[in-house]
Design brief:
This protein has about 160 residues and is mostly beta strands. The chain has one helix at about 1-20; strands at about 40-45, 60, 65-70, 75-80, 90-95, 105-110, 110-115, 120-125, 130-140, 150, 155-160. Strands 1, 2, 3, 6, 7 and 9 form a 6-stranded antiparallel beta sheet that branches. A 3-stranded antiparallel beta sheet has the order 8-4-11, with no helix packed on it.
Length: about 160
């Protein structure tokens, strides 16, 4: 009888391992992976705009220039203004402080007619990605009585995020 009980016990043990395998314990846990793309905003401006010869009593227009803006922000605004000074947007003679009578004017982007740089001019607002504004012109009217000499003005293109 002892052999029968041992054989039956062995049969039950084998049956339980084949039909009902041992349950393994398991546990899970979640992990978050974080990353951040920083906001970026850049501008590529043209070098020098040349008005060449300014003739008294006439208006001279520059060649067309391009500004490129690259942004991943939700929007931006491009402005152009005179860089410092109190010339009210007027070109000044490089040898002294004499300024032309009329302020230089700009057009391009959303601005379809010339606007005086006596004030900041907003040229365009847009969204993210790369935008090329390829229609920027400057124009200068010269009074008939202006003094001879070389005149210049520095302007600043500024792109601001969050338009």
């Amino acid at each position: 009888m002892k052999k029968l009980v041992t054989a039956a016990g062995l049969a039950i043990l084998v049956w339980s391992m084949v039909v009902s395998p041992v349950t393994l314990l398991a546990a899970t846990g979640d992990t978050s992976i974080l990353g951040q793309v920083p906001e970026s905003l850049s501008i590529t401006t043209p070098g020098t705009f040349s008005l060449a010869e300014l003739n008294p009593g006439n208006t001279t227009t520059s060649d067309v220039k391009t500004v490129t803006i690259t942004s991943n922000s939700s929007g931006w605004t491009l402005t152009v203004a005179e860089s410092g000074g109190s010339k009210d947007g007027c070109m000044a003679r490089t040898t002294d402080s004499h300024a032309l009578t009329y302020p230089i004017q700009v057009k391009g982007g959303d601005v379809t007619s010339y606007s005086s740089l006596a004030n900041t001019v907003t040229l365009e607002s847009s969204g993210n990605g790369t935008t090329t504004i390829s229609d920027i012109y400057f124009q200068q009217t010269v009074a008939a009585s202006e003094y001879a000499g070389q005149y210049s003005i520095t302007v600043v293109f500024t792109v601001t995020a969050g338009a």
